[in-house]
Design a protein that fits this description.
About 35% of the residues lie in helices and about 20% in strands. With about 400 residues, it is α+β, with helices and mostly antiparallel strands. The protein has two domains: about 160 residues, Creatinase/prolidase N-terminal domain (Creatine Amidinohydrolase, Chain A, domain 1, 3-Layer(aba) Sandwich); about 230 residues, Creatinase/methionine aminopeptidase superfamily (Creatine Amidinohydrolase), CATH 3.90.230. The chain has a four-stranded mixed β-sheet with strand order 1-4-5-6, sandwiched between helices. Strand 4 and strand 5 form a beta hairpin. Helix 11 packs across helix 12. The longest helix has 24 residues. The radius of gyration is 23 Å and the shape is globular. The structure holds manganese (II) ion. Manganese (II) ion (MN) binds next to loops.
Amino acid sequence: MSDVFDVSFFAGNRQSLLRSTGAGLVALTANGVVQRSADTTFVFRQDSNFWYLTGVDEPNFLLVFTDAESFLVSPKRSAHRDMWDGSIDMTAIKRTSGVDEIYEYHDGWNKLDRLLKKYKKIHTITPVDAYIEDFGFYSNPAKVSFLASLAKHRRLETVDIRKPLARLRQVKQPCEIDALQRAIDITVKSLRAVKTGMPRYKYEAEIYADITRDFIKYGATGHAYTPIIGSGINAATIHYMKNNSRIGSTDLVLIDAGAEYMNYSADISRTYSLERPSPRQRDVYNAVMSVYNQAKELIRPGINMRQYERQVDEFMQKELVKLGLASDITDKKKLKKYYPHLASHFLGLDTHDAADYEQALAPGCVVTLEPGIYIPEESMGIRIEDDILITDNGIKVLSGDLSTELY
Ligand SMILES: [Mn+2]
């Protein structure tokens, strides 16, 4: 499938999951395709956990495995659908995933039903709510459908494997770091071109277009998430995604973008100035960089992420006082106003990757470092974000090739 991953990665992940959970029978579903309008769909993105265990990028497959056997169940197909959508290369799927067998829909379900009668317990990922209030969006319906199909097994016990899977995914294997590095390199190359071209940009959309083209040109699938290209006051909206305003000549432009490569996500932010920045813009930038540098010193194997965030908050509070944005270092309200997010998150198959935040950082973890200060009343927002690998004795900044300079 690629020169980065081979069958031993996916088969190994299934073995690790069985070992860490003591599970007898594991079954989980791929994502489904979601309607966009009438008979058009949103671009399909595989469920990260399903991909981690199979390497299969097709919708509606089902993965079933025990320590004795593993198989995939293919979705219902017809000659008509194959004609419109193209047929699925089952040989390639079998080779990539390393499962023993791929069954067609009815045979596969018959086999799963027999296994469920025997095991009486299924380890799977229990679905989140259909509507996720915090994010304001709907979750992929495939998991709910799958669980509904199990309803005929009345006394079946369901065990959630979301957390043990997150713990596995939290520590990256060399091939995963390779994929992440490729996503990051593509992003670095694209952002470097944007910085060089800064003086000629008049609209956020021009930057959006250039990044999008470069990502695809350099071999990424596309964006890992909708990028943020916010000029002036737009940069103070944390999840600004309209990316279509005219850029003022004295504006700073905050760009938060990440290419996706083999489903792995980069996540890099830079803030650029078209003209020589004003003294105030410099001061705020220097404050962000000061927090960035202090926080970077803390990121080491063995640290606890919650304690780390509290320390970064303290660094930030001191800078906010120096900038005249808070009157003293205990003003939590001002801290949340000008710095409303965390300094770091895990990075991997998901941009905000699955992880157990209570566990100490271990070699192989990849996290972002992204302090920012947002001042809507001064029409500016500055964030600098890099992607950092935890090594045996320290860190490696995977996006370190990209200058953090403002101008
Ligand atoms: Mn981030």
